[in-house]
Specification:
The protein is built from five helices and eight strands; from the N terminus they run E-E-E-H-E-E-H-H-H-E-H-E-E. The chain has 207 residues and is α/β, with parallel strands linked by helices. The protein has a domain of 141 residues: Rossmann fold, CATH 3.40.50.300. A five-stranded parallel β-sheet has the order 5-6-7-3-8, with helices on both faces. Strands 2-1-4 form a three-stranded antiparallel β-sheet, covered by helices on one side. Strand 1 and strand 2 form a beta hairpin. Helix 2 packs parallel to helix 4 and helix 3 packs antiparallel against helix 4.
Length: 207
Amino acid sequence: MQLIAEDLAIDRGARRVIDGLSFAVKAGEALLLTGPNGAGKTTLLRTLAGYIRPFRGLVRVEGGDDELTVAEQAHVVGHTNAVKLSLSVAENAGFWNSYLDGGADAELRVDAALRHFGLEDLSEFPAAYLSAGQKRRLGLARLLVARRPVWLLDEPTASLDTASSERLAAAVNDHTNSGGLAVIATHLPLALERARTLNLAAQKVPA
């Protein structure tokens, strides 16, 4: 499987943010999107997910399920955590499992996801009372409660301390080592084993 972008031109408002961008991310690797604020990292991720229609070019998954869109084969984690404050930590993770997967091993996957992100002792705790870092970890736990071959992550280390960032990196490494792929917008380095970098600031956009 690979995620392919071909000759993308993407506008944001009246400004062309990305023009003539092509790349492919193969199964087993992560692509790190770097560049200053305004370089187009979030816009590109939203385009890959199908939330924004490019002015020109296309995005496709080769070797995946041809009947599904990219978004239907992906975990998309943006700046918000998508945490329901009225539910407990375990209920939030369980919701994402039922919404995205609903397999017979639901309880095992939820327990494993919470354990990986260090939330097992907070499973019955109301999400409304979590710290910013704990809410971010809960939002990221959905990566592990349902299987998706493509991960599209926008600044996933926001609000995370060093130890939590290492937990995230381990999850991404497990994902790519098992044949998944990831595209990650980040300002901070991540200890990833199979990653390359695309600096959007280096992409020349005509004035």
